[in-house]
Structure formats: structure tokens, C-alpha cells
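A reminder before we start the practical. When you read a complex entry, don't treat the lines as separate problems. The point of joint prediction is that each chain is placed relative to the others, so the output describes one connected object in space. Small molecules and nucleic acid strands, if listed, are placed in the same frame. In the example below there are two entries. Take a minute to note the order of the lines before looking further.
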Amino acid sequence: MSAEKLQAELLAKFPFLAPRAGSKDHAAVNVPAENLVAFAKTLRDELSFHMLTDMTALDAGENESPRFTGIYHFFRFASNEYLRVACAAGNDAKPEIPSLVPVFPSANWFEREAYDMFGIKFTGHPDLRRIMMWDDYPYHPLRKEFQLAGKEAPLPGVDVFEGARTKIQPAEMAGGPFVSSPGCEPGAKDESWSDKKIKPRE
Amino acid sequence: MSSSTAEIGYNSKVEGEVIVTKADAVINWIRSHSVWPMPMGLACCAIELMGSGGSRFDISRFGMEVMRFSPRQSDCMIVAGTVTYKMAEVIRRIYDQMAEPKWVVAMGACASSGGMFRSYATMQGVDRILPVDVYISGCPPKPEALLDGMMLLQEKIRREPALKTLFKPRVVETKVVN
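Here is the predicted structure of the whole assembly.
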């Protein structure tokens, strides 16, 4: 079954779905947050998408609405194809998406990661803690307004460091082998290895 | 077979089973040849650290092959790998648990300066939380580089005023609350 066919089939079957533009590989649909859990259950039980292979999130930027989107990839072994489902979080300031853990247990750590990196609250998640950064970390690092170098924050386990008087400071981007101009990600000075450059032919 | 009667080195008949030297020299000689490293393996540098323990490079030639995974039994922390802020607490705790005298080797670019990880999650050099004695460059350093750095540490230990600090109470750098 081709991606277009699967997408058309789903759109015809579920009236709440909307096509998601820009997908060049797999069938992709937008689903409203209130239908997400029921839709995932239907995908699992009736359409044999037995596996949630990946779940990630997207920050469209501070001035966009909806700002945060959860993106799920379901896999169907029978036909060897993926389905991408995007679910926009309603509230831009305090984003919330219903948790898929009751339907797909594999969503547990994915959602914890999305919570850690983007600050999206997954309602109904059994154990919504940070998974990468430590519990007291005050920021969500993959949000658009968060710079790569980091922000000033206390170190975890501050009792160990008392007296050392050290804390997290933004990493230095200038100097060394990597350079960056303000607002840009750092890149190497020597990019002669770059993929974009045409390789010499023998 | 040599029939020479020339005496080379220590002669117990002449010197009467007594060696005259300085206490500093003896203590430092002992310390520098019995470095027990604490392998703080955090990333790929740890693989090179393991390589240096193998027969090809054989770190035991220098008397420091006794890798101890308990901080109570080791006196040289080899920080081999990327130090994240989350791990920094653990590293500092383990360092605090090591008995004096103790030394720290920052192995590789990450432990020395954060390396290529200029990011919110990576500590920009373990010297922000530990007093580093030797920095080893490389990403990762070859076992030869590690051995070179460890020999440098031995040089450093040999120059220390061991006797002066032997009975000195330990300087408590950190204060643990509750």
C-alpha cells in the first residue's frame, strides 16, 4: 500500500483527521489532542499498527500557534509501512498532550524525553519525570529560545560543590576549533571535508 | 662470563645494609611507582584507557596497573571522557572519597576543556570541579599519550615536598551540608 493510499484511506475513515503537508516519505496526518488516544487505540487494535517506533516533539517558535506538536511514528509489520501522526498541543504557554502510555507502553520514555526537552506535559503519564537532565534543572533545552551554549543554572548536587563556588555557565562558543557568529550554531573553521563540496575525481 | 671484580651499585659489605637518602626521595619514589588509578571512564577515552592496560602497551611497566574501582583504594583519578553536568556531582563525590594524597589526570579533549561538546549539558573541562594535575590532549589520546601523561605525573610526584605535607591535616575543600 502506498503512502498516499494509506493517507487517503485514513482521512476518509476518520473525519477528525487532517492531512499533514510536507511529508515526503510516509503517510502523515494531524490529529486533534482530544482524539489522539482513541485514534492510537484504533490504529493498534483495528488497523494493526502494532508498534510505536518513535515519538518526538516540535517547537515551531515563540510566535507561532500552535507552538508545540507531538509527532508519533507508528509501524505496521503486515505491510511494512509507517504512519506519522502529529498532535498539536492546545495551550502554547503550558502545552499539554494526552499520554499514549496506556495504549503503547513504549511511549513512556519517549514522552519523558519530550517533557524534558520541550516541557510538554503529557496528561495521564504514570511517571512524568525528566529523563536526561536532572530533576531540578530549570529549563527545557530544545525549546527555540534556549541557546545551544546553555544558560546559567546551579549545578546538580550543590552540597558537593559548596566551597567550589562553581555553577553552570554558557559554554564558550568562540575560540578553539569551532567558531560561531552571534545567533548561529558553531561550525568548524576547516570545512574542506564538507559533503557539499565536490570530491576530487581520480 | 665477566671476570671483572668491579663493584657496580649497592654493596652491602661496604655500606652495611644501610642506604642513605632523603625521606622526601623515598616517599616520592614509593608514591610515584605505586599509583593506583581510579578509572573514571565516561566515554570513548575509557576504551583507550583499557587499551593501555593490555599487553601491547602494558601500563604495569610503570607501576600503575592496579586499577581500583573503589575510591577508597585508589589515589589517582583518570577522568577519561565527557563530563556532563549530571555526572559532575558523582565525579566530585568519588574524588572526595579518595584518600590523600591524590592526583587527577584529565584524559582527552572533553575532560580537559569540554572538547567538541560546546553545549548546555557538558561541563567545559573537569578542572572546574577538580584540581587537575596533568592534561592529556587527543580525541581520544592514544595509549602512548596516556602513558606519557602518567609518566609526567610521576615526574610531578617526585618533585613534591612529601614530608612537609605528610603530617599536615587535610585541607577540606568542600563542606557537606545535611
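Discuss with your neighbour: Chain B has seven helices and four strands. What might explain this?
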